[in-house]
Amino acid sequence: MRDFRSYMALLEERGDVVHVTKEVDPKFELAALMCKIENAGKAYAFENVKGAQFPLVGGHFTSLERYKDLHDIPKDQPFSRLEHAKILERAVAEPLEPKIMNTGAVKDVIKVGDAINLSELPIPTFFEDDSGAFITGAVGISRNPATGELNVGTYRSLKLDDQTLTVNASTMSDLRSIYNHHRDSGEEMHLALAIGVDPALLMAAVGKPPATVSEFGVAGGLREEPLALVKAEHSDLLVPADAEIIIEGVIDFSQEIEHTLGEFAGQYGPETNPLFRVTAITHRKDPNFYCILAGANPEHNTVGSVAIYSAEKSIMEDLVKQFPIIKALHVVIDAKVAGPMLQLFIQIDKKSDDEPMELIKAAFESTAGYLPVSLIFKRIVVVDGDIDIYNYNDVEWAIWSRVADASKIHLIPEAVSWELERSAASKEGHKSFRIGIDATMDLEDVDKLKRPIIPGFDDVRVEDFV
Ligand SMILES: Cc1cc2nc3c(=O)[nH]c(=O)nc-3n(C[C@H](O)[C@H](O)[C@H](O)COP(=O)(O)O)c2cc1C
Which of the listed residues 147, 154, 261 should we mutate to test ligand 1's pocket, taking the one with most ligand atoms within 8 A of CB? Predict the structure, then answer.
């Protein structure tokens, strides 16, 4: 698997990087250009961001095609999300523990005390109502007091001043539990942000491996080579030795900052987080500031989609024990269609007409290890074996053509929803509806509802007849 710099070099070789040498304003102008370039299918390098010392790069991992390049999969070889999921599953099953080095390129330059100046970094302000400038392409490293192990996730951080940030932990993140522990116990909490890391680590950080497996190990499994780590300057945290930039610091719970940022689902997401007081910045001699364009844009949504593979696996494992009739299960995340809400499409081979509704109810109640399905899944659709659950239109077709009876619709009028379902924000207890649809054919109707097929279709070749 390619590392950060070799992947940048590949994009460069292909002519896939737009270099912007003119000065660009980090407030809005930069985001507008990133958005236009990224949505035109190119990566970018902004070499002259007003007030900053280093270039901003990004727009790298914008599609499954780009992930294919990352894994060096030949152009003509098919690579679907399922193949990608298999790569990730293998890395979780066969993690490679990191090796600890004495030093690394990320220690080329070490800045502490007055030398710390976050304004050196080209941090963009993306959207009109954003609270300020956000670092979006960093992975955050902290120690989980519950396990004693290092925890890695991808979090966005708002710049408050030249030496202070606030790192955003969602309610579902391990980081949120780690914050809560330290706030309650009063124990000191260290955190490090690593910017421009090996893409394997970015992928592992977004995913949610089981508690017994570390994200650093998963990254090693993905690269088929251990990740190299070095000790942080001011704590016992370990950070990637070849990252572009590391920002280290301590969490200060004396203040909680409310802030907002345009989210992956095309809405604003208000958050409240403690202060992150920076105690050191270390970086390469010529660091690149990797940045993921915020909002419902290709790189954010492609990198984020990696997280669904682990959710899919845990939900499947949970449900298939009770319902061996399940043939396949698809967690659908598509911000352009369903905003912040997920859907679950389940393909079954039913033996009775009661099974689909029992499955829908059990699926909404599943916690899949860490995540209550009803918290973020708004719709569950159960279909027959002849429906392609990876094809949105096919599932819609089943709903519209195979459901006549209202009892095949299960409505949960009030389910506690996650913070990004903004339409629930003003409802008591942040509640919203959930819907389950049994779109399978009633067994007595199979002959009426089955799809017309042409017998022998696959064996007939046009070239044999013309
Ligand atoms: C581009 C991007 C930005 C993200 N930003 C955040 C964030 O600000 N806060 C958060 O808690 N999760 C965020 N996530 C999701 C987390 O990375 C993911 O849930 C991860 O598993 C959290 O790690 P943890 O549970 O080990 O703390 C983001 C994901 C992506 C792809």
Answer: 154
Backbone angles phi, psi at 92, to 5 degrees: -70, -40
Q: How do residues 153-163 score in pLDDT, each as one tens digit? A: 999 999 999 99
Q: Domain ranges in the chain?
A: 4-305, 307-449
What pLDDT does residue 323 have?
98
257 exposure class (CB count in 10 Å sphere: 0-12, 13-18, 19+): middle
Q: Whose CA is nearest to atom 23 of ligand 1?
A: 153
According to CATH, the topology of domain 4-305 is Pnp Oxidase; Chain A (2.30.110)
Q: Does ligand 1 have an atom closer than 6 angstroms to the CB of 292? A: yes
pLDDT in tens, 1-32: 899 999 999 999 999 999 999 999 999 999 99
Residue from 34, 168, 170 whose mutation best tests the ligand 1 pocket (most atoms within 8 A of CB) = 170
Helix 298-305 and helix 29-39: axis angle, to 10°? 70
144 CB under 6 A from ligand 1? no
pLDDT per position as a tens digit, 253-301: 999 999 999 998 889 988 999 999 999 999 999 999 999 999 999 999 9
**Cα-based torsion angle of the residue sequence 132, 202, 103, 92 in order, rounded to the nearest 10 degrees:** 150
Q: What is the pLDDT of residue 369?
A: 63
**Taking a C-beta distance cutoff of 8 angstroms, is the pair 103, 110 a contact?**
no
Q: Which atom of ligand 1 is nearest to the CA of 167?
A: 8
- Whether 154 is in the pocket of ligand 1, judged by its Cβ within 6 Å, is yes
Contact 335 CB / ligand 1 (< 6 Å): no
Ligand 1 centroid to residue 409 C-alpha, Å: 33
Closest-CA residue to 435 (of 372, 346, 352, 343)? 343
DSSP secondary structure string for all residues of 19-47: EE-S-B-TBTHHHHHHHHHHHTT-EEEE-
What is the fold, at CATH topology level, of the domain defined by 307-449? Answer: UbiD C-terminal domain-like (3.40.1670)
| Contact 151 CB / ligand 1 (< 6 Å) | yes
The first and second tokens of residue 429, run together, are 């207890």
- Ligand 1, atom 1, lies closest to the CA of 300
Q: Ligand 1, closest atom to CA 299? A: 1
Q: What is the C-alpha R_g of the chain?
A: 24
Question: What are the CA-CA distances from residue 236 to residues 146, 150, 181, 231, 247 (Å)?
Answer: 16, 10, 18, 6, 14
Count of other CB atoms within 10 angstroms of residue 162: 12
370 has a pLDDT exceeding 90: no
Q: Closest Cα to atom 22, ligand 1: which residue?
A: 153
Residue 58 pairs with which residues in a beta bridge? 44
